[in-house]
Amino acid sequence: MKAKIIQMNQHQTMQQHMTSIEIADISGEQHQKVMKIIKEMEPAWEKMRGSRFVMEQYKDEKGRQRYCYSLTKMECFFVAAGFNEEVTIKMALRWNQLEYEFSEFVLPQLRGLDDEDVLERADDIIAEELEELNQQCKYCYTSTEIAKPYGLNANDLLSFLSDKGIVQKMNGHHELTRKYRNEGFAKYRYSVRYNSRGKRKTRSTLVWTEAGRQFINEMIG
User: Fold this and answer.
1) In degrees rounded to 5, what are phi and psi of residue 118?
2) CA pair distance 145, 140, nearest whole angstrom
């Protein structure tokens, strides 16, 4: 899985990410082991920075839903402490390559533009990225759509599913519990919003596949 540019802030700073899958390729370790190392280091990062690492969904070679971490450059070099020196060097070289690709293919699109045009072009880039990310959940259902026929709202439905041990709330958003993560019931739909400082934030929302909708309908009865 390639690193993706997923966000641009008000100072036109592109933010690239590297996944734990790519770190596994670089280190020669199994992805499961890399995930374990990153997870063990996450509490220390959260204590220092006040935020946790981003997780994404992807499909493996057999089409099964899996999870991976998506880390910024700073986060990558923080977790590099959990690997040997050779892996740290390889990671640094890979980031140099990503930044070179960024300067070659993205920055030329922004040169010669005034501030308003830069922001407009930034929005175009973000929109293209979101469209690609959301392609996987094009035909999914929102919690509101599933809840409405039962006279419920999205919060009612998610509360019900939480009581049943199907979803849990982590870092301000809902996700499937471990037991149901690989059942193909849900995906994430991404959107961009602005915080009070005008900085763009990427938000993920749990949405439901047809299999997930049928599963919930059977649960509600």
Assistant:
1) -60, -45
2) 10
Is residue 131 helix, strand or coil?
Answer: helix
15 φ, ψ to 5°? -115, 115
Nearest to 24 by CA among 36, 16, 34, 15: 34
Q: What does R_g of the chain's alpha carbons equal in angstroms? A: 19
212 and 188 Cβ atoms separated by less than 8 Å: no
Containing 157, the helix (H) or strand (E) segment is: helix 154-163
Q: Which two tokens stand for residue 26?
A: 């670089």
Taking the C-alpha atoms of residue 120 and residue 48, their distance in angstroms, rounded to an integer, is 34
Helix (H) or strand (E) segment spanning residue 116: helix 115-134
pLDDT tens-digit readout, 12-22: 334 578 899 98
Look at the pTM and tell me if it is higher than 0.85.
no
Contact 52, 171 (CB under 8 A): yes
